[in-house]
Design a protein that fits this description.
Blueprint: E1 7-13, H1 19-25, E2 33-39, E3 55-61, H2 67-80, E4 85-88, H3 100-108, E5 114-118, H4 125-128, H5 131-148, E6 161-164, H6 182-193, E7 197-201, H7 215-243, H8 247-263
Parallel strand pairs: 1-2, 1-4, 2-3, 5-7
Antiparallel strand pairs: 4-6, 5-6
């Protein structure tokens, strides 16, 4: 538990191998629950014999459904287990566990509903992030700003995120793109419901891994994803109006519950 907040870490995994075990073994002690979602891997994921966290859950997708679909499966399970916030960490070890606490801080302080990592602002980014990824990320970030209207947004492609789980009721989850474009759709949905999004600088970690996104595919797929992001934003806005509950009101309730937990 982190400052009265029950924390779940969702780890989407696809053919992660030994790297997954290292991710789980380095999770901070305040994590209450780790949820590994095996997204149709060829072999069973490699888990540690014992983890330094209270609970470890493994969920299998019978076939590969995409990283976004795996994240949503993890979100739903985290909420079923009573977690207040879910942090997404990749199974490849490219997210520094030291930064996890930094992602939680704006939510605990009541300053944000959705917090995402920002590698581009880190002083070591130019040295560690491959140039092609850096250029592509900057381009996609600029286009995502247009789609979402979040002009201060940085590093739209960073999947290291934390979300208030009660916010899921306000989002059109069935509309979100289930694969690599998931972060862009998530940001569009957040903009549609008026959620408070915050960037937190995180360390860029690369160990020579090859990206699962081929440049030719990205050139074809991402423009489509960004275009449909406008639709996702509109659907989220309509759902917010239909439900008649502003995200700000839900945030006030969340902060009141958190305050009760701290007092207890």
């Amino acid at each position: 538990m982190y400052k009265g907040l029950r924390v779940a870490v969702v780890i989407p995994a696809f053919n992660a191998g030994e790297r997954l075990r290292g991710v789980i073994e380095t999770l901070p002690a305040f994590v209450d629950l780790a949820i590994v979602v095996d997204d149709g891997s060829v072999a069973d994921p490699v888990l540690p014999e014992s983890a330094g966290i209270p609970r470890l859950e493994l969920i299998h997708h019978p076939m590969n459904m995409g990283v976004g679909a795996a994240i949503l499966t993890g979100y739903r399970k985290a909420r079923e287990e009573g977690a207040g916030v879910a942090v997404v960490m990749a199974a490849d070890g490219q997210m520094d566990p030291f930064d996890l606490e930094h992602l939680l801080a704006p939510i605990v302080c009541g300053d944000a509903d959705y917090v995402k990592g920002d590698r581009l602002s880190h002083p070591d980014c130019a040295r560690h992030m491959p140039r092609v990824r850096f250029f592509g990320n900057c381009c996609l970030t600029c286009m995502t700003r247009v789609v979402t209207g979040q002009w201060g947004l940085m590093d739209s492609q960073c999947g290291y995120t934390a979300v208030r789980l009660d916010l899921l009721d306000s989002l059109p989850l069935d509309w979100l793109y289930p694969r690599y474009g998931f972060p862009n759709d998530m940001l569009a949905a957040m903009a549609g419901v008026g959620a408070r999004v915050a960037d937190v600088t995180v360390a860029p970690v690369y160990g020579g891994e090859k990206s699962g996104i081929r440049p030719a595919v990205a050139l074809l797929v991402y423009p489509m994803i960004l275009a449909r992001g406008l639709l996702v934003r509109m659907v989220a806005r309509m759902r917010r109006g239909r439900n008649g509950v502003a995200v700000g009101e839900a945030a006030s309730s969340f902060e009141a519950d958190l305050g009760t937990g701290l007092q207890g």
